[in-house]
Amino acid sequence: SKAEGQNRLHRFEPGLLLVRRLRSQLVEDLRAAIRNDGLMLYYQPVVDLVSGRLEGVEALVRWNHPTRGFIMPDEFIPLAEEAGLISELGNWVLRTAVQQLRAWIDDSLVDGDFSVRINISATDLQSLQFIEDVRNVLRDTGVKPDQVVLELTEVAIVKGNELDRYSLAGLRGLGVGIEIDDFGTGYSSISYLRRLPVDRVKVDRSLISGLGTDPGQPALVAAVLQLVRACGLEAVWEGVETAEQADILRELGCLSAQGYYFSRPVPPDDIPALLADQQES
Ligand code: C2E
Ligand code: CA
Ligand code: CA
Ligand code: CA
């Protein structure tokens, strides 16, 4: 299966072997990186499929390691989880992303509809401190809560306990948006969708990958879209890599999408040019 193939790839990935062997050194490096600006946020546009304009951006963390170069989040987020650094990392990401949005607003690059999306870990969700952190960041920056959207995986939400439900409601109570990430990969009942205090789902890119090659795929996308809307929610489609995929999504009535076809994740300094481009088109 595809999942097994990915596991096999991962097992032989030199980065992961390195993580095992030099784990304790890496943990120390990561701790230092979180505290001394060794991490960076890249931003990937979320695009309105009808107007082509940017609705917002998703913040994606990168670690610029002094000797090993760029390390991707799939490698160091698990390390941060194991080493008990995930809360500190999550707080850094939250603060940095919302401050960046504040700067773009102050520079009149974006308006009050533009949102920044932030990935939060299951650990963040379980921590009442995180709600306080969100409250504090909103107060310190004066950014409107609805311009901040927190992305949570389906697994984190569904496997969550009472406290998680409580936290989710607490976060919602602050007025921030909540989006279910990687929707469609959780293999769980979909009935929970109507009950959860969430605003949107981000459909996993595995649902897009066959668009344009697999003739059965558009019907599946249409069915998922209908299901999500029947639950009173809207969908964002991630992993769009070709013009054909974007066209099919648009024809099916999908509203928002994200993927390499529109833009790769870019450093914050590249965002003004992307915003300027959309004005011309
Ligand atoms: P995710 O939240 O599902 O993010 C989407 C991932 O897909 C990103 O990988 C992005 O670069 C990649 N991607 C975007 N468009 C395309 C496309 O068209 N095709 C393909 N093949 N890939 C695309 P990235 O940046 O390596 O992040 C991987 C995962 O790491 C994220 O998955 C998220 O779960 C986690 N992550 C990233 N930043 C953070 C963070 O600040 N905090 C936490 N807790 N997790 C994070
Ligand atoms: Ca995400
Ligand atoms: Ca995702
Ligand atoms: Ca993911």
UniProtKB/TrEMBL annotation:
It comes from the Bacteria. GO terms for biological process: signal transduction. Residues 23-279 form the EAL domain. Keywords: Membrane, Transmembrane, Transmembrane helix. GO terms for cellular component: membrane. This is Diguanylate cyclase/phosphodiesterase with extracellular sensor.
